[in-house]
Amino acid sequence: MSWREFREKVHDTKLAFLPIGCIEAHGPHLPLGTDFLIAEFIAIKLAKRMKGLLLPAITYGVVRGLSGFPGAIRISPIALEETVYGILSSLGDNGIKKVIIVNGHGSEYHVKAINKGMDRAWYNKKVRSALVNWWVYARKISTEIFGASGDHAGTAETAMVVAINDYLLKDRPIREKDIEHLKSGIRAVPWAGSILLHEGENMIVPNKKEAKFFVQRLLDRLESEIREILSGWSVQIEAMKE
User: Fold this and answer.
1) What does residue 2 show for φ and ψ, rounded to 5 degrees?
2) Per-residue pLDDT reduced to its tens digit, 211-241
3) Domain count across the chain
4) How many C-alpha atoms does 219 have within 13 Å on its Cβ side?
5) Per the count of CB atoms within 10 A, which of 100, 116, 176, 234 is most buried?
6) Each residue's pLDDT tens digit, 122-153
7) Domain of residue 25, CATH code
């Protein structure tokens, strides 16, 4: 976009979508950029459906547990918080006061940093934002369709990558030693496997048809949830004018 095109888009919509991910190992079968690729894919689809402004993805995040594998590239929580706050604040200065953040990375410190940036943008700039941790929301949907979801590089993330482009799937077979089954009361630093599954779950690689069905159902539900949030924000805004 040129600045004129941006100005016109802002005039048409007050809603923006910001994808955030990271770069880290995702098993032997998925690319390092899986988290930001999925977040961007979801943001593209939702922005098109809801006529919002699509922002460039933040591709770097706070990597902790998977830093024991090659390819992890991390930034500090403070750096991510400041980046999120700076982007939301700048959007507010440009007239966009509603932002949906689609996050693809689950590190506790990563998510906390995003939330801190969002809080500051609201209290300092009155920019409203909502955080979508898509894989958490998708667990029930993935379990309904596949019988499993996985925590990291598992069934749900694999399905998303297949839907984006199955060419991204790597040829190397998945071995049992690539998988760590998460058990209550036990935590390894760093994680011992590059695929993290819930206790008792199997690793499933969906086909293209199954993956597309999963994505469609996820997008439909997310769109409905976001529209409900936007409706509530509209009520708030009108109430403030009274």
Assistant:
1) -85, 170
2) 999 999 999 999 999 999 999 999 999 998 8
3) 1
4) 21
5) 100
6) 999 999 999 999 999 999 999 999 999 999 99
7) 3.40.50.10310
170 φ, ψ to 5°?
Answer: -85, 155
| Size (the chain), residues | 242
Output the pLDDT for position 144: 96
Low-confidence ranges of the chain (pLDDT < 50): none
Paired with 180 in beta bridges are 196
C-alpha 33 chain-centroid distance: 12
Give the chain's end-to-end CA distance (angstroms, integer): 37
- What is the residue type of 200? G
pLDDT at residue 172 in the model? 81
Report yes or no: 85 and 52 within 8 Å, Cβ to Cβ. no
Question: For the chain, what is the radius of gyration of the CA atoms?
Answer: 18
Kindly state the DSSP code that residue 239 receives in the 8-state scheme: H
Query: How far is the C-alpha of 102 from the C-alpha of 39, rounded, in Å?
Result: 6
Nearest to 30 by CA among 134, 126, 123, 150: 150
The amino acid sitting at 71 is G
Supply the range of the domain harboring residue 188: 3-241
Give Cα separations from 184 to 142, 147, 148, 225 (angstroms). Answer: 21, 21, 18, 30
The pTM assigned to this predicted structure is: 0.96
- Supply 107's token pair: 């590190």
DSSP-assigned states of every residue in 51-71: TPEEPPPB--B---TTTTSTT
SS3 99: strand
Local structure of 181: helix, strand or coil: strand
